[in-house]
Each structure stands twice: as C-alpha cells, then as structure tokens.
Design goal:
about 550 residues, five-stranded antiparallel beta sheet, 22 helices, globular
C-alpha cells in the first residue's frame, strides 16, 4: 500500500512521465498499461517530444523532476547490465546543477559546524559560490596564511529533502516492480537502494575528505595525478575545505592543445592511472567524467591530471580484484577458456555451468573485435558486451564491478577524446602485467605470510576437528551435492597452488632468516653457509611461485 504522504509526489511524477510519453516504458504491449488512459490529463511537455528518443525524453523528464531524480538517473546510467544502452547513454548526460542557496546561509552553516566566526577561520571568504549542485555548493576562500582553498558546504535541510524523495523513489520502484514486465531484470528496488547508499555517502563530507586523503597518499609523487590536500582543521561532516587547484577540463581539447600539452602522452597516462588505482591500490575514483578530471596546464614536459570530487569512490574485494585482473590478462591474450574458468572460480557463475558453452559465447563476442586494428578496439565496449552475454548464463555481479565498468567507460572516453588513435590494449597490457608481477612478488608474498602467520598458527589446532566433522557429514550422507567435475578440478588445482605457495613461502622465509642470523651471529663460519641457505630460500620461493595458465 502506497503511503498517503507520498501520493502528491507520485501524482506529480506520473504527470511528468505522461507529458514526456514515457508510459511506454512501463509495458511492452504484452501487458495492460494503466497509465496510457491518463494521457489526456497530462500537461504539455516543455519541448516537442515526438522526434526525441526514449532516452532523451527520460533525461528531460528527470531534469524537470528535480535534483534527486537527476542523481537517480546518473546512478541508473551506470547500470548498463540492467538498462538498454540508448537509455544509459542519454542518462549519462544528466547534469547535477541547481540554483545556489544564499552565501549568508553557507556562512552560517560553516560557523555553526566549525564553532567559530568566519573571520577567524578564513582570511577571505567569497559568498558567491563557484559551483552549485543538488547536495552541496562550493565557495572560494583563503586561509590566514594566504593559502587558496575551496569550501564545500552541504545544502540546508538537504537531509530531510533526500529522505522524502527517497521514500518517493521507493514507492515508484514498488510500482515498477509490480507492473513492469521486465522488473526481474531491471530490479528497481535494488537500484533505489543503490541511490540511497550513494546519497548517504555524499551527505558525509568528512568521508569525502578521507577518500581524497587516501587517493593523494596513493599518488604521493604527484607525477601522474595530483589530488588537492584536505585541511582537516576546517572540515566536518557538513563542511569540507580543500586546497584550491586550477586546470583545464579533460574534454576541453581546444584549450589543452592551445596550452601546448602533449595529448597523446596524457591519454596514455590516463589509462595507466586507472589501472594503478584499480589493481595496485584497490581504490579508484568512480565518478571520473571530464568535469571531475582536469589537466594541469603548468606542466608542459610531463603533463598530469588533477582529480576533483571524491564523493563516489570504489574498491573491490581482494578475490574479485584478483579474478578481474586475471580476466583482463586472459582477454588481452585471447584465452577464452581461461576467461570461462575464471568466471566460475570467482563465484560469478553457478558451479554447474557448462564451461564449453560459456567459452563459445565469449569467443562469439570477442572474435569480431579482433579482426580490427587494436587501436580501434574499445575495451570498455567489449567488457560491457561480455557482461551482457554472461547474464544469459546467470552472471552475478557485485555493484562495485558495475561501478568499475562505468569508470572504465569514462576513462576510455577521456583517452579517446585526447588521442583518437590511442591503442588502449598496448598501453593497458604491460601496465597490468607489471602491477600483477609486483603485487605477487616473493617479497610481497613474504610480507603477507609474516602478517598472516599468527592467525594461521592460532587456527591450526581447529583443523583436525573440522576435518573430523566434515568426514562425519559425508559418512551420514549430508553432503549430497556433486559439483561439476571441471569446477572441482579448478578448485583442486587452486587449493594445491595455495598450499604449495604457503609451504614454500614458510620454508623460504625460514631459510632466509636463518641465513641472516648465521651471517650476523656466527661470522666465523664464513660467507658460504649463509649464502647456500639464501640460495635455497630463493629456490623455495621460486618453486612456490604461482604459475600462470
């Protein structure tokens, strides 16, 4: 039952949707569409919609409905696994720009949050905002030491408004769940939950500041990506003070060319930065459209990007990150059987999946692309098509993987704007190989083993009991499910590889530590014994090193 308090909002939404003739999205002719009978009651749209596509009409309708619906449309544009490509492309153009609220109110919020008069906080504060969006607006300011900063302030009353609009969105999602013939694929309630989570994150500016701080630490050299510093003494949950930066929007090709910047070098650097964020740091900017990615005009010899707006960041579980990286490598090397195996091993596909059928479907999607020159292959487009193909095989993806897919689309789009001839594959493949080589190096493995050794030793006494309980369950016939033999083989091989890695890492670590102690505490025996132990330790690491397939 729809609550009466959201009924006026529902009526307004229904009127706007009818005005833009979007009632056709509710049904496809196979079911009754109750809204079509209300078309005569709808107001006339602001533009002639007869020549517009359904995606353009939906974008205009969401713009008219207000900023929260704009935000919902932006989230919907990232779910290319759920919505058609034409609608996703149209919604990706939504701009989150609204009328600013008075600067005097911003001043009052800052003084309330930071517990001090604005004149004591900042040497200068401009009440005229630099930018204004649905959640917050940004003001220019300067600290008393002369440092230029920007101050981001949440809109007054935004919490209550978002709570009200989210209730309305949930009611609309329930209606769509009931009436839309493809509700099981679109999953409207899941989309609204995603919008709600994103809005909750954006309402905490201290969280955004922490994200900016971590990203800056990951790119501390500032050679490839510069992140403005956070001024924590002037930051709370509702106020964020950042170093002010100056740059050129990544899509302003004319200005970048006029500044004398090397666009080809910039494009390649953008691809490298993306892969480093995802696979080296496991923390990536998930809203990397050109408005949030600037180019530093002051560095002609070694151009770099400047990152802005850290409200939407992404990370992946360690397992998903590993399997995703291996999928990319297999895709670069056109190893379709490996891609199919990895999808099942990662748990993205059911364990009883026919791997030969999945491999054939992947080959069908990929092979036409490889007939083109590599510089003309869109990696982002190929990944989107692979995800859609895998959906036919009951693909289950985490929201963060969808967020990553959207970021890949944005980054590739920026790269091709800067350099239309960029070979994404040639740039990405060696970067990913290098990152994986460093990530799974013997030294990194040794550090991980040392970190986890106390936990393993603590759990070791429980293994006999767990094994006994498992054998009893098998003896009583409680474990009757027989997994697919191919899946069992893949899991068995993976377990053996992990066991070999742990055993060899422990042996290698012991030998290296023993060699160091012998060299330090018993130098009278000469260098030969510790040298032999060191060589044996390195051989143990080499034996345990994971083999690529």
């Amino acid at each position: 039952m729809t609550p009466l308090r959201v009924l006026p909002g529902l009526l307004r939404v229904g009127s706007v949707l009818l005005a833009y003739r979007l009632d056709e999205l509710i049904g496809d002719g196979s079911r009754i569409n109750p809204m079509k009978y209300l078309r005569p009651l709808a107001a006339k749209p602001r533009v002639d919609v007869r020549q517009l596509s359904r995606g353009e009409r939906l974008r205009l309708a969401m713009t008219e409905l207000g900023p929260i619906f704009v935000k919902a449309g932006q989230v919907l544009s990232t779910r290319r696994d759920l919505v058609p490509a034409d609608i996703a492309d149209a919604l990706s153009l939504l701009q989150d720009q609204v009328e600013p609220f008075p600067g005097s109110e911003a001043r009052a919020i800052i003084e309330h949050e930071l517990k001090s008069p604005i004149s004591l906080l900042y040497g200068q504060f401009d009440e005229m905002p630099l930018a204004s969006a649905s959640i917050a607006q940004v003001h220019a300011a300067a600290l008393h030491d002369g440092s230029k900063v920007v101050v981001k302030v949440l809109r007054p009353g935004i919490d209550a408004r978002i709570a009200r609009d989210v209730r309305l969105l949930k009611s609309l999602a329930e209606l769509a769940q009931r009436w839309h013939p493809k509700a099981d694929k679109i999953r409207p309630l899941e989309i609204v939950a995603e919008v709600e989570k994103m809005l909750e994150n954006e309402l905490d500016l201290q969280r955004e500041g922490a994200s900016a701080s971590l990203l800056k630490r990951n790119f501390a050299s500032g050679e490839d990506l510069y992140v403005p510093a956070v001024h924590w003494d002037f930051t709370t949950q509702r106020v964020l003070t950042l170093e002010r930066v100056y740059g050129i929007s990544a899509d302003d090709i004319a200005a970048i060319t006029a500044a004398g910047l090397d666009r080809k070098k910039l494009a390649a650097k953008g691809v490298r930065v993306f892969y480093e964020q995802v696979f080296r740091d496991n923390f990536f900017h998930a809203d990397a459209h050109p408005g949030n990615i600037w180019v530093d005009p002051s560095r002609l010899d070694e151009p770099r990007f400047i990152a802005l707006d850290f409200g939407i960041m992404g990370s992946l579980p360690e397992t998903d990150q590993y399997f995703l990286a291996q999928n990319f490598i297999a895709l670069f090397e056109r190893d379709y059987a490996r891609i199919a195996q990895l999808h099942v091993a990662a748990g993205w596909m059911p364990a009883n999946m026919r791997l030969d059928e999945l491999e054939a479907a992947i080959r069908t999607v990929c092979e036409p692309y490889f007939t083109r020159p590599l510089s003309q292959i869109s990696l982002a487009e190929l990944v989107v098509k692979l995800f859609r193909t895998a959906q036919r095989f009951e693909l289950t993806l985490q929201p963060q993987l969808i967020l990553l897919q959207k970021t890949l689309l944005n980054i590739e789009g920026v790269g091709r704007m800067l350099d239309p001839d960029i070979d994404i594959w040639a740039v990405a493949h060696p970067v990913l190989k290098r990152i994986l080589r460093e990530r799974y190096s013997p030294l990194r493995t040794l550090r991980d083993v040392r970190k986890r050794l106390p936990e393993w030793l603590h759990s070791a006494p429980q293994f006999p009991e767990l094994m006994r309980d498992a054998l009893r369950q098998i003896g009583r016939g409680e474990q009757r499910t027989v997994p697919d033999p191919q899946w069992l083989k893949l899991q068995h091989d993976s377990a053996r590889q992990q066991q070999r890695l742990i055993a060899c890492s422990l042996l290698g670590s012991s030998l290296m530590i023993s060699a160091a102690l012998m060299w330090t505490l018993a130098p009278q025996h000469g260098p030969l014994p510790p040298l032999c132990e060191s060589i044996a330790g390195l051989l143990a690491f080499a034996v345990g090193w994971p083999r690529s397939r």
